[in-house]
Design a protein that fits this description.
The complex is a heterodimer of chains A (about 375) and B (about 130).
Chain A (H helix, E strand, L loop, with lengths): L5 H21 L3 E6 L4 E4 L1 H6 L13 H4 E4 L12 H6 L5 E10 L6 E13 L2 E11 L1 H36 L8 H31 L8 E4 H11 L1 H6 L3 E4 L8 E4 L1 H17 L6 E8 L3 E8 L6 H4 L23 H12 L2 E7 L3 E9 L9
Parallel strand pairs in A: 8-10
Antiparallel strand pairs in A: 1-2, 1-6, 3-4, 4-5, 5-6, 7-9, 10-11, 11-13, 12-13
Chain B lengths: L2 E5 L3 H13 L3 E5 L2 H7 L7 E4 L8 H11 L6 E6 L5 H8 L4 E4 L5 H12 L9
Helix pairs in contact in B: 2-3
The chains are: A alpha+beta (about 375), B alpha/beta (about 130).
Chain lengths: ~375, ~130
């Protein structure tokens, strides 16, 4: 057994302290620690550089809230009690790679975007403070913003001529310029289908880009799920007619499903599931849809009599670009992005999806969408 | 049926929408941008405004902001008709008081008439394709 004297213990403590200092100062990102009140106790050179300070003495002992404010996307200061740092200190939450916007309290300092990872420091049950790592992502944020703006503009510019193609084609089929023969109508329906496909590609690419860059904004408002269901299947009616699919909405019309959530994201989710139910179906097959109000929100069930999903493929269907082997003989056109988008959007709106499927017999998708008014959201 | 102001800068599309809505017996006035639309409102009191967002001179959001200031007591329904899917502009328009948003590229004539009927009858609580 080794017995250490006081000098040995002092030396070991000094070594540990030197190791800790060297480690702290060699971290490539900005790093600082605070006490339980949020006062800065330690800060490395990279953190000083990011925050535009030259000397540690200018910030040590000061509360983080004296150095900068956290700002929301509208440019308003987020109250201390509800900002991300209080989640770490008071709620003892660990946050990882979260992007925040800050405004330094010194005059004329610009807004910055930081990516932070922070965790509470605890000794047994006592909160000692926090460790915060961060890096300046202001430039990356600007580039992401420019990319989003470009994608929005490009998708809008591509969609404008598609709108004209689709609208005028529909008007011809609907007889606005006189009655057409069945053959003429079928020709024009081919044009409509192709323009719908182009739209689908643009939608998917726009959604994927926003999902992957974290740019999808959640905007809950009063939403009628029955209307969305009707609208989605109405828009898919040409495919439904062509494949002679028998479609039925068996929702209880006397019990409308009106909740508070993001109607635009919900529409995208339901459209992707509905589109698959139609595309990967037998000719003359069936699709039924049902929206049911529950205590927590709404459940939407879409059942098809289609080709089904093999057990082997079932764990992969929400992966990006996944298409089941052999699927092209049913539908050559498909990006493999639809269900990835479904999962991504459902994560954002607080929903979930599950399914059951038997190869050769069909698939049932069940989407659960929460009612945000249960969570006292302001809309 | 109803008095509708169509605000759309693309001439091919505004011609098509006019034809569609006139065939459903609506009384139509056309404007090619937000500024023209505000001018049109001096002599035309629509029950519904079909509003594009991305337009030259004055876009849909600026029009909506001005419209709400000038006609804040109005019962006129605002239907956003755009190709900007799931964009901050659409959400901003809904926050400014637009009743619903539909995507032009996805909207067939029959569906446009149906949505307009729903919005006018105040059955609308959703924004959809």
């Amino acid at each position: 057994m080794i017995v250490l004297n006081n000098n040995d213990k002092k030396r070991i403590r000094a070594i540990r302290h030197a190791e800790s200092e060297a480690l702290f100062n060699s971290i490539g990102d900005g790093a600082m620690s605070t006490n339980e009140k949020g006062e800065i106790t330690r800060i490395n050179d990279e953190a000083l550089r990011i925050l535009y300070y030259t000397k540690a003495d200018d910030v040590l002992g000061r509360n983080i809230s004296d150095i900068f404010d956290l700002i929301d996307e509208n440019g308003n200061i987020i109250q201390e009690s509800s900002n991300v740092l209080s989640r770490v200190l008071k709620d003892l939450e660990t946050i990882s790679s979260e992007r925040i916007q800050i405004k330094k309290k010194r005059q004329n300092d610009p807004l910055m975007h930081l990516e932070i990872t922070a965790s509470p420091m605890k000794l047994k049950n006592q909160v000692l403070g926090t460790i915060i790592l961060f890096r300046d992502v202001t430039e990356e944020h600007k580039i992401d913003q420019m990319k989003d703006d470009f994608i929005s503009l490009a998708s809008h510019q591509l969609r404008t001529p598609i709108s004209a193609i689709s609208t005028y084609s529909h008007m011809l089929v609907d007889g606005y310029m006189g009655e057409l023969t069945e053959e003429q109508k079928n020709f024009i329906k081919t044009i409509i289908k192709s323009s719908n496909r182009m739209n689908g590609v643009i939608s998917s690419l726009t959604s994927i880009s926003k999902l992957d860059s974290g740019a999808v904004k959640f905007s809950p408002r009063k939403t009628n799920i029955n209307q969305i269901l009707d609208g989605v299947f109405h828009e898919n009616r040409i495919e439904i007619e062509e494949r002679q699919i028998s479609y039925k909405n068996i929702s209880d019309k006397d019990s409308p499903c009106i909740i508070v959530n993001d109607s635009i994201l919900i529409t995208e989710v339901i459209n992707n599931i509905a589109s698959n139910a139609i595309k990967y179906n037998q000719r003359g097959g069936t699709v039924t849809a049902k929206a049911t109000k529950t205590v927590m929100g709404v459940t939407v069930e879409i059942v098809d009599s289609g080709i089904g999903i093999s057990e082997k493929d079932q764990e992969k269907i929400f992966e990006k670009f996944f298409r089941a082997p052999g699927i092209t003989k049913y539908e050559t056109f498909g990006s493999g992005l639809g269900l990835y988008i479904v999962k991504g959007f459902l994560d954002i709106i607080g929903g979930s999806v599950r399914f059951r499927s038997i190869k050769g017999q069909g698939t049932t998708f069940e989407i659960t969408i929460p009612d945000m008014s249960n969570m006292k959201m302001n809309v | 049926m109803a008095k509708i102001l169509i605000v759309e800068d693309d001439k091919d599309l505004i011609n098509a929408y006019s034809m569609i809505l006139k065939s459903a017996k609506h009384d139509i006035k056309e404007a090619y941008d937000g500024k023209e639309a505000l001018k049109a409102l001096e002599s035309f009191e629509p029950e519904l405004i079909l509003l594009d967002l991305l337009m030259p001179v004055m876009g849909g959001l600026e029009f909506l902001t001005n419209y709400k200031k000038m006609y804040d007591q109005s019962d006129t329904k605002i239907l956003i008709f755009t190709n900007m899917e799931n964009s901050p502009e659409v959400k901003e328009a809904l926050n400014l008081g637009a009743n619903r948003c539909i995507i032009k590229a996805w909207t067939a004539p029959q569906n446009l008439n149906k949505v307009i009927t729903d919005v006018l009858a105040n059955h609308n609580v959703a924004s959809t394709k």
